[in-house]
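Propose amino acids for all 222 sites.
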């Protein structure tokens, strides 16, 4: 267990590093696992950015286009990008970091990137948090990028009909006609992993410092 301080005491979370720990969580009736964006050694320095693309309606093609646009901006800024279905409604675009900046800086960077992406197609994308102001557009949610905030873990099962799984994808899989946020389930993910490598297996090798992207983004928005 690992604890992090709060104003009134300490909250303890399990640190899951072995299969035995996962089995223990399952025995506690834990279904969906959520994880921090930082590691125990440096809790206040995120080692990944998460862009949660949340659709307002059933047009998943717009979500896919927004994922590609987000990855395009991040790539131009010098960051590697990964994508996964959430097993719920949308997609996550994730950029691994070297954990060399604090959460406030990372979250502001994510907010600025989201504004660039949304401004490129304001008819279909928004950074408006209030649902009644989204007008059917995809919401680029960057609030996972804050201290103690969590996002669904890769390969975590959702407590929904069919037991869909949050599933890492190759980028070209976004083009599949059947792709939806709940496309993969506990029935087919084991076969999927037996037949192809995990797309996120080497994500940490591509972690980048945020220093350069911050400078490039500032020039872009100047």
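Proposal:
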């Amino acid at each position: 267990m690992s604890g992090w301080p709060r104003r009134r005491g300490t909250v303890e979370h399990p640190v899951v590093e072995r299969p035995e720990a996962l089995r223990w969580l399952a025995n506690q009736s834990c279904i969906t696992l959520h994880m921090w964006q930082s590691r125990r050694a440096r809790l206040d320095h995120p080692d990944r950015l998460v862009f949660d693309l949340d659709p307002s309606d059933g047009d998943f093609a717009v979500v896919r286009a927004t994922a590609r646009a987000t990855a395009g901006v991040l790539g131009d800024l010098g960051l590697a990008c990964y994508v996964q279905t959430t097993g719920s409604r949308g997609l996550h675009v994730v950029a691994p970091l070297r954990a060399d900046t604090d959460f406030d800086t990372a979250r502001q960077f994510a907010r600025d990137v989201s504004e660039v992406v949304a401004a490129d197609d304001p008819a279909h994308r928004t950074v408006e948090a209030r649902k009644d102001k989204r007008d059917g557009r995809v919401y680029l949610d960057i609030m996972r990028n804050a201290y103690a905030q969590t996002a669904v873990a890769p390969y975590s099962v959702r407590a929904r009909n069919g037991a869909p799984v949050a599933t890492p994808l190759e980028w070209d899989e976004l083009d599949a006609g059947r792709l939806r946020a709940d496309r993969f389930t506990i029935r087919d993910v084991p076969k999927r992993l037996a037949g192809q490598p995990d797309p996120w297996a080497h994500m940490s090798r591509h972690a980048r410092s945020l220093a350069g992207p911050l400078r490039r983004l500032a020039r872009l928005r100047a």
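The first helix runs from residue 19 to 27. The chain has two domains: 1-30, 36-221.
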